[in-house]
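Tokens for chain A. Residues wanted.
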């Protein structure tokens, strides 16, 4: 099964560090990064922050490894690491599979 993992990071440098770790370890085929604004409750108060949203294209069997890696390098106490199943162009999905199941 193919999935997109959604992760937020506090800044572009942290997002880039996470993205490079995931791609270079064959856990993700591609990571898209976009600036976003987030409103959430943390520590009992409403926060408003600028963040970087990451969309990680991968396969479901890589989710636990991705989550473990993100938790090991992320600066947040509780990073957002969620996923949903995707369907798409067969050739593109084959490329994702080939990247994350590559043994270099």
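Reply:
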């Amino acid at each position: 099964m193919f999935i997109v993992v959604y992760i937020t990071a506090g800044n572009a440098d942290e997002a880039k560090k996470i993205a490079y770790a995931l791609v270079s370890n064959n856990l993700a085929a591609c990571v898209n990064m976009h600036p976003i604004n987030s409103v959430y409750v943390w520590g009992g108060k409403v926060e408003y922050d600028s963040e970087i949203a990451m969309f990680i294209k991968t396969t479901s069997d890589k989710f636990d490894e991705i989550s473990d890696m993100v938790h090991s390098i992320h600066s947040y106490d509780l990073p957002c690491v969620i996923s949903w199943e995707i369907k798409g162009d067969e050739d593109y999905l084959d490329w994702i599979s080939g990247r994350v199941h590559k043994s270099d």
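The beta strands are 2-9, 30-42, 45-59, 81-86. The helical segments are 12-24, 63-73, 90-100.
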